[in-house]
Amino acid sequence: MQQLEELVTSLRKEGFRITPQRIAIVEYLLKTEEHPSADHIHKTIQKKYPMVSLSTVYKTLDLLKEKKLVSEIEVEGEARFDAHTDEHINLVCMNCGKIEDVDENSLKEIQNRAAKKSKYLIVKSSFEMFGYCTNCKSKFN
Amino acid sequence: MQQLEELVTSLRKEGFRITPQRIAIVEYLLKTEEHPSADHIHKTIQKKYPMVSLSTVYKTLDLLKEKKLVSEIEVEGEARFDAHTDEHINLVCMNCGKIEDVDENSLKEIQNRAAKKSKYLIVKSSFEMFGYCTNCKSKFN
DNA sequence: CATTTAATTAGGAATTATTCCTAATAAGGA
DNA sequence: TCCTTATTAGGAATAATTCCTAATTAAATG
To answer: Which ipTM was obtained for this model?
Structure first.
């Protein structure tokens, strides 16, 4: 996801209104590496902007997903969001829930191969790995 | 997932009871290619065995997951199950919900690379691609 | 085969992430 | 500044999953 200014102007050009709620959400997503859930986003930005409702967070995330400005991954029945939209692997810690991104060049190639084999028209991919992060793995060996 | 008999004896050896409910669920999972949801499994086996409750389906799926006899993937807030437990790519049709498996040799290698880079201890992976299947894609071009 | 007992089940209630609904608000063009 | 209409807040509705408990039953034992 690009810079805040570019983003705002591009959304405005498409006829979307730039509200303080949207700015707060986008701003937070741009600077965090946490892969937050909707609820987490809501709680976090409420500290700074108390008047943001959870339903607005959901609605804004829908918009950003549609514009492909954020990507979504599902972890344990909960959606988590990320402004890193290139194809990458998400590593999910099964203990603390932390998610780390790992770049991997071959994903596009794999996607092409799968598309050819299956004859599906592929729109997006999601690569997840589950395990234990460096902090947590010592507890589970 | 192996044959029914092997499975049953291996579970029994571990002290689990072999109930008609569990047999029905395992039997169905072994023969279908549908990647059914818990609810779908429930509805399907109820035709043959009317006295199987949804909570038993959920509990049995938990057991099978723990024993790594089925794998789970999440699609649109719903878990779908598959007796195909080797690492593979799941192609999900965004129109009809059909899921197709595609084998891909390089997944293990990618997993190893990601583990090394991130220092995570990786337990399982999930590779999903979303798009339109051969039947549905003509409607969306 | 009858008895025992602990695992399993049915059924519904509780939980929880997400979506839906609507009146009130406010962004941005005129 | 005014007007139009997209957006929001807040809570109710929805739906998948988990939890709870009394009743059932698999299977070990004698």
So the answer is: 0.91
